[in-house]
Amino acid sequence: MSGIQSNLYTIPLSIVNEEDHLILAHQSYKSGKYSQALEHGNAVYEKNPRRTDNLLLLGAIYFQLRDYDLCIAKNEEALAIDPQFAECYGNMANAWKEKGDIDLAIRFYLTAIQSFWPKRN
């Protein structure tokens, strides 16, 4: 049974709320426990697949796990919801760079920069 371990018992992941899963996913990610982070991020995704903050995190987790295709896919999902989510473009650029497509990576880096600094009149 998968769950959150304490000294006395294991809490099933299915009863942990969405916000707690997201917090645990971030904590696991920051401590390099990417499989555990993925488990919590996926629990959030099952409850709310349109959370762009979670999609961004899932993309980052997949990047660390070297699954660049899923990294790109999760960032594309987030961009379908919020096309101005600049961090997603940067993450996709990093994934494309790792996949060896430098030209596409550069295009995504430029899009990320343009999303951060929109054109001024």
Descriptive overview:
With 121 residues, the chain is mostly helical. Helix content is 69%, strand content 5%. It has a two-stranded antiparallel ribbon with strand order 1-2. The model has no long low-confidence stretch (mean pLDDT 89). This is Putative UDP-N-acetylglucosamine--peptide N-acetylglucosaminyltransferase SEC. It comes from Aegilops tauschii. InterPro entries: OGT (IPR037919), TPR-like_helical_dom_sf (IPR011990), TPR_rpt (IPR019734).
Percentage of residues in helical conformation: 55-70%
Q: Which strand-content bin applies to the residues?
A: under 5%
Mean pLDDT: 89
Count the beta strands: 2
| Side-by-side strand order of the widest sheet | 1-2
Topology-level CATH name: Serine Threonine Protein Phosphatase 5, Tetratricopeptide repeat
CATH architecture designation: Alpha Horseshoe
How many separate domains make up the residues? 1
CATH top level class name = Mainly Alpha
Largest sheet: 2 strands, antiparallel
**3D shape:** globular
In CATH, what is the homologous superfamily? Answer: Tetratricopeptide repeat domain
Low-confidence stretches: none
Rg from alpha-carbon coordinates: 16 Å
Broad structural category: mainly alpha
Rounded to the nearest angstrom, the distance between the terminal CA atoms is 57 Å
GO molecular function: protein O-acetylglucosaminyltransferase activity
Pfam families: TPR_8
Organism: Aegilops tauschii
Protein name: Putative UDP-N-acetylglucosamine--peptide N-acetylglucosaminyltransferase SEC
